[in-house]
Amino acid sequence: MISRFVTSALFAGAAAGLIAGLLQLVFVQPVLLHAELYESGELVHFGVEAVSAHPALPGFDPIRDGLSLIFTMLTYTGYALILVAAMSLGEERGAAANGRWGILWGVAGFVAFHLAPGFTLAPEVPGVAAADVGARQVWWFATVAAAALALWLLAFGQGWLAWAGAVLLLLAPHLIGAPEPAQFSGPVPTELGALFAARAFGVGLAAWVLLGSFAGYFWQREGARAA
Amino acid sequence: MTSTTKTLSLTGSKLVPTLFAAALGLVLITLTGHVQAAALHDAAHDVRHATGFPCH
After folding, report:
1. Is residue A137 part of a domain?
2. Nearest residue on chain B to A118, judged by CA atoms?
């Protein structure tokens, strides 16, 4: 039984993680490298001289980008393990988990793990001012847990009490607010920060949809094989 | 019905692997996305930013 969880999560996580990592390298990494030129002071926003919006960026770095690919695959394998656990619980309550329904599971995962925390604690480009990392991590975990529980209640809860609780769980972290820095002193142009957040969300959604579909597919296939 | 008893007996045997998978996934995300040890942070730096984890 455990092998069904681990096998389907490993296949789905590795495949979706590899695609996520490649999408990040193409669409997110150039924005990140550009921002780092401001973070390091190599470029100065509103400095004495106007700076081109199209500087020469360091190209593909095998070690740095290879590590990024590996860590993205590991991260998505972690997501996949949680997702198949949720699928297993959902199946007991009559929800389908296969390649098609997995798309919906993936969107839910994106909402819980990316959109909910990122709605207030936007994906950070390097060089932005931010509050203490420990405090932000606590807020991040709490928000993800609240959003995941809320989505579960929306999908499987019965009655207005469950749905009202879900709405409250979705709203609360954002009404309370995330840890914010005392001053906004980041040196990075706002255009780069906005593009970075948009790209991070876009790649995240694409990767989660694939992850959900892959996880559902392998979850069903491994289940059929074991039966 | 046999299908009912099968579902019920599955519930118990599924609980442990479900919890195990969820816990393992959480540990993995914490390691790749959140632990601030220098080596891990540096190796996962770009991923943490691109995935929307709080980084530094």
Report:
1. no
2. B52
